[in-house]
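input
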Amino acid sequence: MRYDLVTLSLFVAVADEQNLTRAARRKHLAVSAVSKRIAELEQQIGTPLMLRLPRGIELTPAGHSLLFHARQVFRNLGQMEEELSDYVAGVRGHIRIFTISAALMHYLPRAVSQFLTYYPQTDIDIEEHTGIGVVQGLLQGDADVGFFSSWTPASGIEVWPWQHDQLSVLVWKGHPLAERATLHLADCIGEKMIGPHRESAVSHILDREARKLGKTLNTGLRVSSFISMAELVAQRLGIAILPVNEIGQGANHESVRCIPLDEPWAKRELYVGVKSYAFSSPSVKAFIANVTPSKLTTFAGGEQA
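output
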């Protein structure tokens, strides 16, 4: 079948307005012209697409199916136009990345740098979010690529395993726990804690595991930055549990110790994900291929925090 984009656009307008007259006014056409186009489309397909009612229209099952695919067609055309305009401007592709800090601080800069050596004219925007914020950005279309942990529920996101990460306990030298080779969460119960943002995956996991022990963590301070958490530990304001790679260069390493948290749940995967690989732009696909050659999988949920 040969579909006319103008007719498809009129069909979407009628479906949106649920009224031929309002759709005609929106498209600056006569009602008879819109009605004729829709009738021809129905004749071409071979089945009614809408029911004409006294006060408007109602889509048939076939009409709902066509509406879904027509919107995808126009969405893809919009993406195509945006990417082609990037070529005209000398920017060969545009990638919007949402990421958790664990990826941003250590792994992602290296990956982006390597990608840009092959595609130097690609425009990349990077925003830091919580894991939930990354997934929401992907689902809502605000981000093209997301980096988040296996602790974050992410139903419907297509992902690739990317890096490994593990929680550790950060204490200052001279603390009673400082000489331990490993620690369990139970060892930290009762200690004054410096916690991460309440909506972070780390916060949810720690609260959940403490509840399993019948305890609650004594969290006196909360900060959104893991580097700030490490600095507060160095000032002896409390101990912290955070991903080992998050300590960063900002912490006073001479005055703190990083002790592995010996718990089966303390290890996590970092994922790179997209909402739909099939509908991703060539630039995004090239970025994914450069970041990881791993096989694509559909992530069905993530560990519930």
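quick obs: The longest helix spans residues 61-88.
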